From TrEMBL:
Presence of keyword Lipid metabolism: yes
GO cellular component terms attached to this protein's record: extracellular region
Gene3D superfamilies (alphabetical): SGNH hydrolase (3.40.50.1110)
Similarity-based family: Belongs to the 'GDSL' lipolytic enzyme family.
Keyword terms: Hydrolase, Lipid degradation, Lipid metabolism, Membrane, Secreted, Signal, Transmembrane, Transmembrane helix
Pfam families documented for this protein: Lipase_GDSL (PF00657)
This protein's record includes keyword Lipid metabolism: yes
Any one GO molecular-function label of the UniProt entry: hydrolase activity, acting on ester bonds
Subcellular localization(s) per the UniProt record: Secreted
Coiled coil: none
Transmembrane segments: 6-22
Major localization listed first in the record, in broad terms: secreted
Protein name, UniProt field: GDSL esterase/lipase
Amino acid sequence: MDTTTIVVFILSSMAVIFAVFARGDHESLGASYIFGDSLVDAGNNNYLSTLSKANIRPNGIDFTASGGQPTGRYTNGRTIGDIVGEELGQPNYAQPFLAPNTTGRVILNGVNYASGGGGIMNGTGRIFVNRLSMDIQIDYFNITRKQIDDLLGKAKAREHIMKASIFSITIGANDFLNNYLLPVISTGVRISESPEGFIDDMINNLRSQLTKTINKLTQNECVGLANELAQRYNGRLRDLLTELNENLHGATFLLGNVYDLVLELITNYAKHDSERGLLWQWRAVPGDHTVRANVDHLRRSTKHVFWDPYHPSEAANLVIAKYLIDGDTKYISPMNIRQLRDL
């Protein structure tokens, strides 16, 4: 692969994943820089005054690296970002940007900017009080980029970013669920702006964010309307990627069809050695005694598709990552991640 070429990988479902990597060889991945929402948050919201937090049990119960303790990941184990990085040879998990120990040479192993409740639109997730929007996450990456320049010098920093790193963005679900479709709070928005108009705004924001980032680097039940909006958005996203492929020379974009992949897991769960339903159904409890009482059961229940009503389990994330890395064009096109890496 030409070392001046940037490769961009995008997955779309209830969320969007965007990853960039350019390799001049096939050596192990050095770092992973992760942007997004609760599907890939590794603990940034632990350091925010927010109503969206995951640093409580039973989250993390199957996360080996923490000994089963919660880390701020909104699932029982690893996220899709964690698994893809591992499969591509990344030696360490990307650390949360807001963690106090994410300093010095630690950032060369990767940084995670994702935030539960975050979205493409800056107003998304305001119900949680605090969260990191995509724009803020990009601003934080620019801070990291300057720190890498200081650590390695500009020439080596550019080589690290362009040849030894993968960038991923998993975002978009909250823009529907915790913005446009939010009861009461967003009723006025839905009256004044049609679904197509809102999707236009999302696409325009995402276009600006992706272009800004690339240019910076080179220098069981489903909610009907939510699903309909996601499918419309995914169609528009495909058009956007075609546009960016034509206009951002030196960049290559892939599209991952995670919407259909998750639907496949839900519909044909037995085929994937999974079980229908939730691994853990969140509910109000008088304290954490009830949660503790269910821990042993949870340790035996590692095959469910969903960890809670909104987040896939580690078992599901493993299946999704497998299809994205080695799957066919039904789920990732025009090629899979491994084929892209080996160009």
